[in-house]
User: Fold these one by one.
Assistant:
Number 1:
Amino acid sequence: MRYFRYLFIAVVGICLLMVALANRGVVTVRLLPEEMAAYLGQPFSYELPLFLILFGGIVAGLLIGFVWEWFREHKHRVEARVNKRDKEKLQREVKGLKRKSPEAQDDVLALLDDAQGAR
């Protein structure tokens, strides 16, 4: 299974390298419309290779997706934490009850002790 993972990573790396080599052309990226940039006095435009724009978009999409899922799963993490706390509390309670009641006692002796306790 480890070799399949390495093979997959190698194939993805080769594909990314081919995309980068095929898209080396320089493009102008403007962060604001020209009128707004003129009003602010800053052009806010950069010239970057196209593959950087593509890879940046992929990374930004992944980050937005991860953050979105983290917020969406918040209620599940809280519920799991509460359930874990309850489970630990119940385990401590069971251990305490086991210490109070002798387990090694024979059933017949337990019946006799109950009969003597009733007198």
Number 2:
Amino acid sequence: MDSDQQATLIQPAVVLHPGEIVVDYLEFRGWTQRDLARRTGLTPKTISEICNGKAPITAPTALALEKVLQRPAHFWLNLQRQFDEAEARRLELAKSAEWSDWARKFPLKDMRRLRFLKPGQSEADALLNFLGVSSPESWSAVWSAANVAYRQTRKFTTNVESVSAWVRETELVASELQTADFDELVLRSSLESLRRLTRKRADEIMDPIQGICAAAGVAVVWVPELPHCGISGCARWLSDKKALIGLTLRYKTDDQMWFTFFHELGHVLLHRKKRAFVLDNAADSLSDQVVDPEMQRYESEANQFAADTLIPPAALGEFVRRKNFASEDIHNFAEEIGIGPGIVVGRLQRDGLLARHQGNALKQKLNWQFAEDA
């Protein structure tokens, strides 16, 4: 269905101005507008403007017409309300044509495929309803007010419309999750339980992660990546009592997903009062790629939190000193510290102790399935 067909579906019906109904009553009674003015106590100018569709029927006018024309005030007010709504829709439909260029900056095809957008609406209307705003200007104001701290690097070219659409979907999915009020102590005490989930199969972890985090006031959601986002995850505060961690699952192995998850947890625990909304892109290495030096510090802190939480530094140091990185050794070390072996492989690769092609058989591959339109 193209946009013209969609626009036709929502073309507002023609609704008469209530003044035309008033004219019908005058003709039925054989009255002039001046007769009605004298009977209602309204000025001839007011009656003329109502009859010509240039002025609305207000509550006082409706009460006057109720007495003179014997139709209740709510009858006239409902006519006016219906007309006002139809007129507003007509004007908005005219604007929708102007908004189409703005709407096409969003990845609409992918958003429809992933069922972000409702069918049967014009591109602009579907997008505005999804974003929860009334106009492109409102979207811009809401996005600016969100005060997003984005780990912007020179490596990625992103599209703000795609990013904002992905963020909006994380909000909508998170709104369906019931969480307790945020409790830092509960969350910190849950880190070990979350860490041990790295030993489970990938298809068994989503519900436990959500349940553990919800009990601490954190909604964890997975939303498929959109084109030109370059997003690995986000951490933000939806309110003082509810945090959100969103993951794209753009990565294909468990070590990448778990590191991103604990990285976002680090933002929640370490940067609550410093950065209320952090978007992380998919750069594998920060180094000098980060444009904002302050963000580089926050990212480094979140990285360190994730690395040390997953693999305690003392245990890692002892293992590295052995210099035995065969698959069996890695597996045994993972068993000793109660973590998935793929996490150890990923860490050794990041630290340059293993090549990127070594040890990958110990990693779990992720193959998340999301509902898409047929």
Number 3:
Amino acid sequence: MNDVRARDPDEFSAGQWPDWSFWKDQPGGPRARGRGRLAIATAMTLASLTLIAPVEGIAHGSGPPLITALAIGLVACYGVGCILAPWFGPVALRRERIAIVAVIFLLGAAPAVLLASPSYLTDLTYALSIGLMLLPLRHALLLGLVTVLGQIVWMRLARSEVAWAQVSILVAVTAALGTVFALNFTIGHLRAAREQVKRLAVNQERERVARDMHDILGHTLSTMTVKLGLTRRILESSGDVALAVGQVTELENMARSALSDVRATVSDYRTLSLDSELAGARMALRAAGVRADLPAATLTVRAELREVFGYVVREAVTNVLRHSDAELCTVRVGPDWVEVADNGSSTSGADAGNGLTGLSERLEAVSGTLGHGPAPGGGFRVIARGPAPAPHLAPSRKTEPK
């Protein structure tokens, strides 16, 4: 039984680790990645410059010189860490990210502990921002909540009052820097997604062109091969030049038609007609010595299915010419179905492969289905069905193949 509560892996979760992999995989190489890192590092550099004021306050304080010098050194290390963390943290492993946040947090909190002043905890805004960047949101928010509550409790115990202005700065600056990281993160992922969409679109277009080339040239080249063999046999057996010239003339016309189809397909202007495919199938089967039993009219076929059914007839007849030892090929059509069957060996069309795969894709595009396999009376059968018609267009079930 499937777990209906299972979460989509692409769905946001407060417990997931921020994925900055687009900095490694982003198209454009190191220069593109460097711009993103430089933007964040610049923001943290500007933020670190605000640490100059706490340094001045520590220097002009009344603490012992050794403690004062140590506190200033810790603030300087804290500033450097805030600049380097956005550069190296996003591509670090999870344990390394935790270590980076912990070290920066300790460096930021150490001056407040050394000087016994909760006011310096306000400078932890930058450490909390790094936490928002590198840790799951749930952990980063918990760290921020503990820091704010710790500053409030410490102020209440040490001074019997809370400097709400400093607490507000701690919350506001953390939120502002966290927003900068979130925007950079979102923009980076949007760019990576856009490049992925471009690649998928190119691949899809390549598959479409390859499928169209197979459908167009496969049938024509198969027919031309048969007619060339017929021309050779005419010249070898009877030497009837006039009959051979007639076959060569038809070959020339077919080659020109194939070239025109290729040009039209590449230009995406080509439309295929079921009637023309039936006429071409009749000529190709006749040239191969296969008796053709084709419908006299196709007016009952729904207009939106005529083109895809034309591809079905083309590919199925091509498979008869290529793979079958049949003597008869039968085509039947209905409002939302088409069937092509032959009386050859039942396994003769089993390895048709790419062509039938392409037909399946075409029918899926119009919500149709394709079936193929041994025919009930022997031979091989391909049957395509379109989507169910509207009630007023429903065909009589007596005419649909079982």
Number 4:
Amino acid sequence: MSLTRKRKKELKRLRDSAEVLWGQQQDVLANANAVASEARRQAAYYTREELAPRVRDGYEHYVRPAAQTAGRAAGAARDRIVSDVIPAVGATIGTAMSVVDHARDARARAFLGEVKQAGRTVTTKAKAATEKSGPGIGTVIAVGLGVIAAVGVLYAVWQTFRADDELWVADEEPTAPAAE
């Protein structure tokens, strides 16, 4: 298919315009890469000079003391459970089992009628003696929420300082289209 001289001339001008445009786009991309590189460098400076000290100070003043307090509270709760709750539960189970064994004993059944009157006064004294002291369920929930908050803060700090490869701008030069 042959083209007229006029069409060939228009196509040549169009090709020249496309090449000029391509060169301008290469210049724009080069400038954009330079600006992105400078922005990355400035962000690194800002992070190193401003953000890192603030995060470090915040960690030292808020996170570390809270974590230490939560650790002490968890240790105290563990000590309280080991020293108070487990022995009390064991004693209660042992008492209940001995009461069941005693109730099954045929000789004890006759004795139960006589003890019922005295048992009423004993149970009221036992209730007064076993009043709970120490941290309750609210304290345990508060310690749990404190631990969850500390983990959340540590996760946020980790997200702030982790390397993010998606922020890098490719330094590749785009290739020119093949001219015909």
